[in-house]
Amino acid sequence: MAERTCETCGAKNDVGARFCATCDAYLGWDVGRSTLGGDALTGTIPRVVGTVPTDTTAAAGTAAAGTAAAGTTAPGAGTGGSSAASGTATDVPTVDGSGAVTEAAATEPAVTIPAEGEPEPGDRDPSRYDPPDVDVTTPEVTIAQDAPARVELSIENTSTIVDGYVIEAVDPPAWLELTHPDTHLMPGERRTVPVSLTMRPGVLVLAQRLTLAFVVRSMEDPRLTIDASVHVTVPPRGPRISLEARPTLIRLEDSGSGSLSLRLDNRGANYPQTVGLSGSDPESVVRFAFSPAVVEVPAGAMVEAAVNFTAPQPAPGQQLNRQLTVTASNDEGPITAIVTLVQHTTPAPVDQPIRVRLQPSTLRIADASDADFDVHVDNRGGHNGVTVSLAGNDPEHRLAFAFAPARFLAVPGHITRAHGRVRAHLPARGSTATHPFTVVASDGTNDVEASGVLEITSSAAAITTAELQVEPPKLNVGTRREGRFAVIVDNRRGAEPLHVTFSARSEDGMARATFAPPQLAVGPGGVGQSQLRVSSPHPPANQVGVRRLEVEATDGAQSLSAAAELTQTAPNRRGPASKWLVIIGAILVVIGALSPWFAGFPPLLPFVEWIRELLTLSAFTVGAQVVEPPLRLVLLVLALMMAFGLAGKAGGLTRKSAILVVLLSVGFLIFLAITSFVPELALGLPIVWFGAVLGYIGGVLARPRT
User: Fold this and answer.
1) pLDDT band at 441 (very low <50, low <70, confident <90, very high)
2) CA 617, 620, 621, 626 torsion: positive or negative?
3) Which one-letter DSSP state was computed for residue 95?
4) 514: three-class secondary structure by DSSP
5) Distances from the Cα of 75 to the Cα of 70, 78, 86, 481, angstroms
6) Which distant-in-sequence residues (6+ apart) come within 8 Å of 563 by Cβ?
7) Is the peptide bond before 247 cis (omega within 30 degrees of 0)?
8) Taking a C-beta distance cutoff of 8 angstroms, is the pair 502, 522 a contact?
């Protein structure tokens, strides 16, 4: 029958046992992780190269802090965490060598009562105070980083007063935190109080099983305590160890032995893992030696083991690649790492043939037909001089070769250099031709070749890389007949001078273009400019004309073109005529208003005489001397209104004023004909009428055309 050996105390247990029957150590995570073929693996911990914080390091820090404070504060003072300080009737649960609390110590809660002769609190009535009754309803709990444990305590207040209770852990591990809600109970009340056990963050807690002792303490009388305990299990969590070989590529020169290191990483698991190391290769000829052969990787740690190996060397001058497989195994399965072994041996010393190399092997020339290069004849592997003849060859038979010297002695142990030149015809402009070729070095028996490539580039014509621009591309000259453009030739990307001749034409052929200068020479990398003057007839009246021009610059073989637009507006001749007619008409109305209207009568009477005429009240006086002066004044105002009508857009005020001038003057004559008689007319009224007609015509011309 298979048995499992406890690694803590060495006792034999059944293969399916989860806890050691002797020391109560937890055995559940040992299945497959520390056995190989069912047999326990006893490993050695090699050099540790990396760790993460674990509960052991946290406990060490806590113990150091406790030791530093031991000289000033007694353990459990003020907290009742120690049975000696609280006068506990039973002993605190004992802990065996494995760190686990024995079952006998955690079976029944222990009641702490005041020692005989100990003074009572000043206001304490002994008959009203009794220790609580505590039952642990969850004696077994499991805790994880993401799953706190819940311990349920059934607490009964046996006192005759309301009392509250504090639950404290006794010497808890550094990674454990204990919290509970308020526990104030009425007299005789029993309540289930949940106690939460959580792990502190940032610490890897090792897989373990421990008995946690805690104290339920009365708030009214801290001397009244009850001790209880619960079994806490931290289950194993985390991945299997990872295996890394360093280095993964090993090169051996003329050697059959080598070494490498293995890193076994268990920093992600909270339990130790033990593996046996082995190595293999497809040919089964490599021998491995591991130190140690069985490795125990502690929880939260990364260790490094050394590996030495020996492998047969390949034949002289040969290279052999082998794939080495290093395996870490236990009953959970193998973990492998691959290492590539490259072995190379020096060949036997023999005379090596000469080698030929071209420097450079790729020749690039522009706008030239000859290219120079060096031929390196390498005789460093030879022990005797070799007479070499050089020759060139190309498959297209378009190249010519020359060497200096063409025949020479290649000195042993050295590189001999010769000068070479190759010639080819230039390709078409703006194109590149590639010619592969070989240089042959012959010693009379053997030929050694070196390959090269000749790339010949012929620069493109300057006009193919130049640009033609017209500034501005669109020009509005209004009512003018002529516009000016700047024609720019950009040869900044060209490698040759550019000579161009300009020309321009419009789509309808109505525009006439002249250039200054008509021809332009632009150097490589430069910019040239010519002025284009375009003359075009006006478009039809009240229209806008657009002349589209195509500007061209040619070097005689190729040309560049650019587009331009000339926008013109038809001149408005009605406007000036309207203004002049209105102004002349207004002036004539003013002249006529101040001139004599009737023959034999002055244009204006003095004021005194005008008053006297009003007093006489003769028929003619009433018509001519009473109405005429105010009418003349009205005509002067209307003349001014005709002139002010020019400020409007349609000339309406001018036309209305002209009509009123005619109507008032003609109405005055009709008034005279009715009331008295009409004297012989002088030039005044005809001038007024002629001015009104001119002003009206000007007002009509001021109206915009539709």
Assistant:
1) very high
2) positive
3) B
4) strand
5) 7, 9, 11, 112
6) 470, 473, 548, 549, 550, 551
7) yes
8) no
Instruction: Give the span between the Cα atoms of 355 and 465, in whole angstroms.
Output: 45
Cα diameter, the chain:
167
Nearest to 30 by CA among 19, 44, 21: 19
Instruction: Please give the CATH architecture assigned to the domain spanning 355-457.
Output: Sandwich (2.60)
Phi/psi class of residue 554: alpha, beta or left (left: φ > 0; alpha: ψ in -120 to 50)?
A: beta
* pLDDT above 80 for 602: no
Q: Would you give the DSSP letter of residue 383?
A: S
Burial class (CB in 10 A: 0-12, 13-18, 19+), 470: buried
Structure tokens at 139: 């004696």
Distance CA 673, CA 667 (A): 10
Report how far residue 474's alpha carbon sits from residue 106's, in angstroms, rounded to the nearest whole number. 102
Residue 206 above 60 pLDDT? yes
Which residue blocks in 26-87 are alpha helix, DSSP H? 55-69, 83-86
In DSSP terms, 231 is beta-bridged to: 140, 211
Q: Which residues contact 442 (CB under 8 A, 6 or more apart)?
A: 388, 389, 391, 448
Nearest partner of 550 among 517, 499, 511, 498, judged by Cα = 511
- Residue 104 confidence class, pLDDT cut points 50, 70, 90: very low
DSSP code string of 479-499:
T-SEEEEEEEEEETT-SS-EE
**∠ CA 144-149-155, rounded to 5°:** 165
**Which pLDDT value is given to residue 303?**
94
Helix %, strand %, coil % of the chain (to 5): 20, 40, 40
Structure tokens at 65: 């802090």
- As beta bridge partners, residue 545 has 568
What CATH number labels 466-569? 2.60.40.10
Round to whole Å and give the CA distance between 198 and 328.
Answer: 35
How far is Cα 357 from Cα 380, in angstroms, rounded to an integer? 13
Strands 512-516 and 526-535: antiparallel
Between 494 and 30, whose confidence is greater?
494
Residue 483 phi/psi, 5° resolution? -135, 155
HEC sequence for 544-598: EEEEEEEEEEECCCCEEEEEEEEEEECCCCHHHHHHHHHHHHHHHHHHHHHCCCE
pLDDT for residue 354: 87
Count of C-beta atoms within a 10 Å radius of residue 592: 27
The Cα 113–Cα 86 span in angstroms is 8
d(CA 1, CA 152): 40
Q: Which residue, among 273, 300, 297, has the nearest Cα to 202 in the 3D structure?
A: 300
- State the DSSP H helix or E strand holding residue 516, giving kind and residue range, or none if neither: strand 512-516
Using one digit for the tens of pLDDT, what is the confidence trace for 264-311?
A: 999 988 889 899 999 999 999 999 999 999 999 998 899 999 999 999
Is the pLDDT confidence value at 625 over 80? no
**Which one-letter DSSP state was computed for residue 107?**
S
Return d(Cα 564, Cα 470) in angstroms, integer: 7
Q: Helix 684-702 vs helix 628-644: angle between axes, to the nearest 10 degrees?
A: 20
Least Cα distance to 338 among 354, 327, 348 occurs for: 327
Question: Can you tell me the distance from the alpha carbon of 619 to that of 677, in angstroms, rounded to the nearest whole number?
Answer: 9
80-117+126-234 in CATH: which number?
Answer: 2.60.40.10
Task: Identify the band that residue 14 occupies on the pLDDT scale cut at 50, 70 and 90.
Answer: confident
For the ranges 80-94, 216-230, 547-561, the lowest mean pLDDT is seen at 80-94
Beta bridge partners of 535: 482, 512
Tokens of 539: 């478009």
